[in-house]
Amino acid sequence: MVNQDYFKNKKITVIGLGRSGFASATLLDNIGAKVSVTEKNKDPEVMNYARQLPQSIELELGGHSPKFIQNRDLIVTSPGVDERSLPLIWAREFNITVISEIECAWLLCPAKVIAITGTNGKTTATTLIGKVLEEAGFRTFILGNIGTPFSAEVSKINADDFVSLEVSSFQLETIIRFKPKISVILNFSPDHLDRYKDLSSYLEAKSRIFINQDETDYLVLNNDDPVVRDLAKKAKTRVIYFDNIMHHNSNFAAVKAVASILKIDSNICQKVFSEFSGLPHRLERIAEFQGREFINDSKATNPNATEFALRNITKSIILIAGGRDKGLDFSLIRDLVYQKIKALILIGEAKDKIKRSFKNKVPINEADNLSGAVNLAFKESRAGDCVLFSPMCSSFDMFKNYEHRGESFKEAVKELIENSKREPK
Q1: pLDDT value at position 162?
Q2: pLDDT at 207 exceeding the cut of 90
Q3: What is the CATH number of the domain that holds 334?
Q4: Helices marked H in 150-245 — which ranges?
Q5: Is 64 exposed, middle or buried (0-12, 13-18, 19+ CB in 10 A)?
Q6: Is the pTM of this model over 0.85?
Q7: What pLDDT was estimated at residue 74?
Q8: CB-based contact 87:96 (threshold 8 Å)
Q9: Alpha-carbon distance 327 to 191, whole Å?
Q10: Percentage of residues in the chain with pLDDT exceeding 70?
Q11: For residue 122, what is the domain's CATH number?
Q12: Is residue 1 a part of any domain in this protein?
């Protein structure tokens, strides 16, 4: 690692004790910082991380207090912490520098970083870029918002390695010097309007990915997305465009653009694409039973992601949707829903809002939980149909995260099939 002396002996508070908070707190403790952690929750996941923290780390659980913020040299914040939260308000009042977990890890990282953002497709593109680099012979780490925090692996990274890093708008809010060698913006559509006051604020957060880049770096932009394409006007770096030529997957086009910058043969890209079977919770085919296909698309946390799923399924669809509303307009995909959806099964906090968006045009049922929704969807479906779980919402009303939600859908489908097989004929 590089720049370890920057953190050594500094008094640093980490806000949040999820995956990234635990990783950054442990990393900073290992390199000699005086670390504290403050976390508002005391759920089982938090308590599990708390038990694993080194004893040298001072810990506050179940709430925040000013004493964990004041007189600190630096604050490291987890992506789930909103700028309106008390610890960040206090940090501003005490004039203490705040950085994100990805900035913390980036400062220590000796390798070239390729950072990928966008409203949808980040995880797929980040994974594919990493696999292309590996196929080309480079030691590569696939990290970030994809699931494994940057801070958890940075101590293992060497100067000749690459990092394929998925970054969210939340993580970019509190960067100061973060400067990827290559930045990629895949697309832009409405999302997270429960966190941002308007679309402009959300776009501004996304655009911070290239704020520190200069003419020695690269910015890869989607030429088919006018909002993304227009960001080139603000860039000081070299801009490379990709587009969806010949109906190729736009993620594939973005990956090819990155490969071209690194002078990686396009045949390597094609080999990786042909072997890629997709990711868990993204259009994941999990079962076929009595002629019905069950697809887990739990990662679809906004209408545009669900739109992609609907356009890529040719069968009649029973759609299970709902969760926590992020301030989005579900009616944006109304016409496609009317064309493709045979019935709609709704769950979660947003079900009334979704129902208002599609009422009178498609049969709608409601369920109290995901298991009930799966059973309703099965009853509404016929052989040849597809039962698609594509929520259009965040998971936090009923689940820990989209992975937990997706696994719960799989369990519900498994239970449905087992129960149906046991029923007398």
Answers
A1: 98
A2: yes
A3: 3.90.190.20
A4: 150-153, 169-172, 199-207, 226-229
A5: buried
A6: yes
A7: 98
A8: no
A9: 8
A10: 99
A11: 3.40.1190.10
A12: no
